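FAQ

Q: What does a record look like?
A: Structure on top, sequence underneath. For example:
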């Protein structure tokens, strides 16, 4: 049985010191959570399965990802490191992998040029390419009959729209259809973030997580909304995710990685202890 992965996420913005981990709600109203290198080292020591490092303002600010922070982080951790934010060329991917990352996460650039997924996976291998999909619920189903309509537990209906530039720009793309396309183009994994849930601590968006997990053959990382370790259990059991990504509950010391894994193991979820 494949073990489920627990992945702390370091949302990083550029500051005078070079980089700061932040956390907000729907990528805004950010508050500082600490130094990215120090936090990465702590999570490595606590037994995290992987780390995700997202330069969340790189695309919006039209700048490159912070290579120096990646290099310093990679020197301190010995688990897989995924880096995303502002990556739009194979040269950028090569530089990030050389800096010590194991995988790269592409989002806005993939939407703007889907062939970038195919090109990068062909050069570096599917195992290195994670496609990040940020999405929002869209209740306008009458004018979007070609979209994947999902029935919610409360009886409502929605489709999930892909958004880019840190959730600021809607695209009109259907999340399920887009995920199926990037899988065919060679993406090795999907990092799925529900913008409606991000930072709310109300739990992951289970309907879209479950549908993608059941539809695709590549792993799905659930992201957005973790408020306690019970939400991770829901992501794995009801959402059928392969990995659960969280930020606030770890950054602000509400739980340790070890506590999360111990809880999940007792509940019958296979995790690496």
């Amino acid at each position: 049985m494949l073990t489920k992965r627990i992945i702390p996420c370091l949302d990083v913005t550029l500051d005078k010191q070079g980089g700061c981990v932040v956390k907000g709600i729907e990528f805004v109203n950010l508050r500082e959570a600490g130094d990215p290198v120090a936090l990465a080292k702590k999570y490595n020591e606590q037994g995290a399965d992987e780390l995700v490092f997202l330069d969340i303002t790189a695309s919006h600010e039209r700048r490159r990802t912070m290579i120096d922070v990646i290099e310093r982080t990679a020197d301190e951790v010995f688990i897989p490191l995924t880096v995303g934010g502002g990556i739009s060329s194979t040269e950028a991917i090569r530089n990030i992998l050389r800096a010590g990352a194991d995988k790269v996460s592409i989002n806005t650039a993939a939407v703007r040029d889907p062939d970038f997924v195919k090109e990068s996976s062909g050069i570096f291998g599917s195992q290195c390419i994670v496609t990040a999909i940020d999405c929002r619920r869209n209740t306008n189903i009458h004018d979007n009959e070609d979209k994947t309509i999902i029935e919610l537990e409360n009886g409502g209906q929605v489709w999930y729209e892909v958004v880019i530039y840190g959730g600021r720009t809607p695209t009109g793309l259907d999340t399920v259809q887009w995920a199926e396309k990037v899988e065919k183009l060679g993406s090795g994994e999907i990092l799925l973030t529900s913008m409606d849930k991000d930072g709310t601590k109300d739990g992951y968006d289970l309907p879209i997580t479950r549908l993608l997990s059941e539809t695709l053959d590549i792993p799905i990382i659930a992201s957005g909304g973790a408020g306690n370790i019970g939400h991770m259990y829901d992501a794995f059991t009801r959402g059928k995710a392969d990995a659960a990504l969280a930020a606030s509950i770890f950054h602000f010391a509400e739980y340790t990685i070890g506590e999360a894994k111990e809880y999940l193991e007792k509940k019958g979820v296979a995790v690496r202890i």
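Q: Is there anything notable about this one?
A: The two ends are 14 Å apart (CA to CA).
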